[in-house]
Design goal:
Elements: H1 2-23, E1 37-54, H2 58-62, E2 64-87, E3 90-94, E4 97-110, E5 117-130, E6 133-138, E7 145-158, E8 175-176, E9 179-192, E10 197-207, E11 212-213, E12 223-238
Antiparallel strand pairs: 1-2, 1-12, 2-3, 2-4, 3-6, 4-5, 5-7, 6-7, 7-9, 8-11, 9-10, 10-12
Length: 239
């Protein structure tokens, strides 16, 4: 029985090696991994929302039953710089990015007179300058393919922030802080062509600091804290 297991194990390994041997192809862009630093650009889309925390008296004082943030589609464009750190599988990646984000906050109130629910929506738009700095842990190339894991963070500046704007109490809006810092995690795959490398990447960002500004409007009183969170899909071209 033991010899049968050993024989099966050897046969499986021979099969795997033979398959990979048959799949072996000429490598495109062989000099790419030999360079210390290389550049490119990134295009993509995102969906942004908030991790939302209601105030403890949101229902008792304001009859707020629920507050839900719905993700909306946005986009981003950036410039890519990738630097090799001493080994072929660890890299440092910096992608200054201009991103456009939108969230829709839906308030569900209970009417004390009718007992029926009423809905109110608030839209929060952002135009951000993001500066993600990520460690990229990449597999060795298999022919013209590789995959990788990302871990890092980014400071973010909201160019559209109304942090210091005068509030319109007749038609209030949600105030978000101009500066934020977010942790990031993600991964991707890379395809090597004869003249450039093409990558598809998925990332998740979570804000570490409360981005909400309480200014005692009808929209803001039921809210305690808001934390930015974003899903990113990016297409990366490097040469």
């Amino acid at each position: 029985m033991k010899s049968m297991k050993i024989g099966t194990f050897i046969l499986m390994h021979c099969f795997v090696f033979s398959v990979f041997g048959q799949l072996e192809k000429p490598q495109n862009y062989k000099r790419f991994d030999q360079r210390f630093i290389h550049f490119g650009f990134m295009l993509g889309w995102n969906t942004a929302s908030f991790s939302t925390y209601q105030s403890s008296d949101a229902f008792s004082n304001y009859q707020l039953k629920s507050l839900v943030t719905n993700s909306q589609p946005g986009g981003q464009v950036g410039i890519v710089t990738t630097m090799k750190i001493g080994t072929p599988v660890v890299r440092l990646r910096f992608i200054p990015t201009l991103s456009f984000q939108e969230r829709v906050m839906t308030y569900t109130y209970m009417s004390m007179l009718s007992g029926k629910d009423s809905l109110t929506e608030e839209r929060v738009n952002s135009t951000n300058l993001d500066f993600p700095l990520m460690f990229q842990f990449r597999t060795l190339r298999l022919n013209n393919f590789a995959s990788y894991f990302l871990l890092g963070g980014q400071p973010s500046i909201d160019l559209q922030s109304q942090e210091k704007a005068s509030q319109n109490y007749a038609d209030p809006f949600i105030k978000i802080k101009k500066f934020d810092f977010q942790g990031q995690i993600g991964g991707g795959v890379e395809f090597f062509t004869p003249y450039f490398k093409f990558g598809i990447e998925l990332k998740y960002s979570q804000g570490f600091t409360n981005s909400f500004i309480q200014d005692n409007t009808d929209s803001s009183r039921p809210i305690d804290r808001l934390y930015n969170r974003v899903w990113w899909v990016s297409f990366i071209f490097e040469g």
